[in-house]
Design brief:
229 residues, mainly alpha, 7 helices, elongated
Length: 229
């Protein structure tokens, strides 16, 4: 019970806290308009242009916080509020995604590693979550037989999420520097951007801690079961 609490329960609570923080920070700062009234689309375009990037398409997508950069198709997607909005949250998120485009152009090493691992994660994630979610209902002998598959899948996810951390932190660092350097925001306005991007970063930390906790828990189950045999 103690191992479950430490390795599963606490990361779960951290994940819920992270989701609450990013939601509240985004909602708060999406209500604060920037003085320059530059939209998220314009900010992303300016940040990329300053790095000599003129071949990335900026598109509007549905949903909330569905913003992302697609390095394969060179497409920067911004959710509606961030695409046309000029709030501190919108500009922070848009510049962050533009930061990923700059990483791609400059061949940022951790982003390359992340892209290499990404296809394996698409297979590993459903395997890990299926076994972790349903395997325990299928009996002791069976769970011991399938645990190695869940452990291997979670190992892939842990490595991916670990590599994701510097990628996301670096994109935020680039975003903050460019927003001020290009005169899009004043330094006093960066408080809202910092709050939004720092809260978003916490979600990536929480995801890593959650997967690592699950991995360690399954390893303990597997080694404990092997000793019992």
């Amino acid at each position: 019970m103690m191992f479950w609490l430490i390795l599963i329960g606490i990361p779960l609570l951290l994940g819920l806290f992270a989701q609450f923080k990013v939601s509240s920070a985004y909602q708060k700062n999406s209500q604060i308009g920037s003085r320059g009234r530059i939209t998220g689309r314009e900010a992303a375009e300016a940040v990329m242009s300053s790095a000599g990037i003129n071949d990335v398409e900026i598109v509007e997508v549905e949903g909330m916080l569905t913003d992302h950069y697609d390095p394969i198709n060179k497409r920067l997607a911004l959710s509606a509020h961030n695409y046309s909005g000029y709030s501190l949250a919108a500009l922070g998120v848009a510049a962050h995604e533009a930061g990923h485009a700059i990483q791609h152009k400059q061949g940022y090493a951790m982003m390359k590693v992340r892209q290499t691992i990404a296809p394996a994660v698409q297979f590993a994630a459903p395997v890990a979550y299926f076994i972790f979610g349903w395997g325990f209902f299928l009996g002791g002998a069976f769970i011991q037989a399938i645990l190695p598959f869940a452990i291997a899948a979670l190992m892939v996810m842990v490595v991916f999420q670990l590599v994701t951390l510097p990628v996301e932190f670096d994109a935020s660092r680039r975003a903050k520097a460019q927003l001020v350097g290009l005169g899009i925001l004043g330094r006093d306005e960066m408080v809202g951007v910092d709050e939004t991007l720092n809260a978003a970063a916490l979600t990536y930390v929480a995801a890593f801690v959650d997967s690592l906790g699950k991995l360690l828990y399954l390893v303990l189950l597997f080694t404990g079961g092997r000793r019992d045999d």
